[in-house]
Design a protein that fits this description.
alpha/beta; Chemotaxis Receptor Methyltransferase Cher, domain 1; Rossmann fold; seven-stranded mixed sheet; 11 helices; 10 strands; binds S-adenosylmethionine; CheR_MeTrfase; S-adenosyl-L-methionine; transferase; EC 2.1.1.80; methyltransferase
Length: 276
C-alpha cells in the first residue's frame, strides 16, 4: 500500500471514518478498517471522474446531491454474483419447494430475490421454476428482484451477459432459458423473454421501509447481510419472517446465519430455512 504522502488523492483518517459512518447509516454496510485500500481505490475513481484531488471536496457533493450520493454508494458495494451460485438452493427449489407448491395447490407463487445484483440470481430462480414446470400449474408467478444499487439493476433488466457466464449454467437450462447472441451481439448471451416477463426489478434499500405489497413463498437474500452488523441483520431477518407466508422458505448465503432469530425458523441445513 502507498504511504499517504505518495497517494494521488487525499483520503484522511477523518474522511475514512466519515465513509464508514455514512455507509452504515445509509445502507447498513459495515466497512472494516481493513477495507481502507479498497475504499481508496474506488473513491479515487470518483475523484478522477469529477476532476477533484481531495475526498473533502467530494464529500460536499455527496452530501448535497442525492444522485451523486447513490453513485458513491454504488461504487462501494460488492456486486459479485453468478448464475446458479450455491447450486444446492436451486436443486432444493426444484425438487422440494416447487413439488410442495404443486401438491398443496399453491397456484399464486411470489418470490423475492433481495440483493439481486446484476440479475443472475432471479434469472436462475426463474429458469429453475421453468424446468420444474411451475409456470404450467401456477396461475400466477411473480418474482421481485431488488437491489440498492441502481446500476446493477439496469444491467439486470437487460438480461445480457458475457458468454463466459454459461460456465455455471447447468445444461438442462441452456436451450430453453438462454439465447446466444449473433453478429453485433456475438460473445454474449441473453435471458429468454419467456423468463424475463415474470421478473420485476426495482430499487429497494433493505434497511429502509420496503415498498413491496406482497407476502412471499420464498425469499432469497444471499451474500447481502454478510456486510451488515448483527443488530441490522436481525432486524431484517425479523422483517423477512413477517413477509413470508406460513411455511415460506428463506435462503441465505453460505456464510450467513440467523443469529438471535433462530427460534423463528426451522433450519433444514445448507442455509435453507422454513418459517415456523
Ligand atoms: C455480493 S452481491 C450478492 C448477489 C446475489 N444475491 C448472490 O448471492 O449472488 C450483494 C448485493 O447486495 C446489495 N446490497 C448491499 N447492501 C444493500 C442494502 N442495504 N439494500 C439492498 N441491497 C443491498 C449490493 O448492492 C449487491 O448487489
Amino acid at each position: 500500500m502507498l504511504a499517504v504522502s505518495e497517494q494521488e488523492f487525499e483520503l484522511t483518517d477523518k474522511d475514512f471514518k466519515f465513509i464508514q459512518w455514512f455507509m452504515h447509516k445509509r445502507v447498513g454496510i459495515y466497512l472494516a478498517d481493513t477495507k481502507r485500500a479498497m475504499v481508496y481505490g474506488r473513491v479515487s475513481r470518483q475523484l478522477r471522474r469529477r476532476g477533484l484531488t481531495r475526498f473533502k471536496e467530494y464529500r460536499a457533493l455527496i452530501e448535497n446531491d442525492e444522485q451523486e450520493c447513490v453513485h458513491f454508494i454504488n461504487t462501494l458495494t460488492t456486486n459479485k454474483t453468478q448464475f446458479f451460485r450455491e447450486i444446492h438452493h436451486f436443486e432444493f427449489l426444484e425438487k422440494v419447494v416447487v413439488e410442495g407448491w404443486r401438491s398443496l395447490g399453491n397456484t399464486e407463487i411470489k418470490i423475492w430475490s433481495a440483493g439481486c445484483s446484476t440479475g443472475e440470481e432471479p434469472y436462475s430462480i426463474a429458469a429453475t421454476l421453468w424446468h420444474a414446470g411451475a409456470f404450467e400449474f401456477a396461475k400466477s408467478v411473480k418474482i421481485f428482484a431488488t437491489d440498492l444499487d441502481t446500476q446493477v439493476l439496469e444491467h439486470a433488466k437487460r438480461g445480457v451477459y458475457p458468454e463466459e457466464a454459461l460456465a455455471t449454467i447447468p445444461k438442462q437450462y441452456l436451450r430453453q432459458c438462454f439465447m446466444r447472441g449473433k453478429e453485433a451481439q456475438s460473445g454474449k448471451i441473453k435471458v429468454a423473454n419467456r423468463l424475463q416477463q415474470f421478473i420485476q426489478f426495482q430499487p429497494i434499500n433493505l434497511i429502509e421501509p420496503w415498498s413491496l405489497p406482497e407476502q412471499f413463498d420464498l425469499i432469497a437474500c444471499r451474500n447481502v447481510m454478510i456486510y451488515f452488523d448483527k443488530p441490522t441483520q436481525e432486524q431484517i431477518l425479523r422483517r423477512f419472517h413477517a413477509r413470508l407466508k406460513p411455511g415460506g422458505v428463506l435462503f441465505l448465503g453460505h456464510s450467513e446465519g440467523l443469529g438471535g432469530c433462530s427460534s423463528l425458523f426451522h433450519h433444514l441445513g445448507q442455509t435453507i430455512y422454513v418459517k415456523m
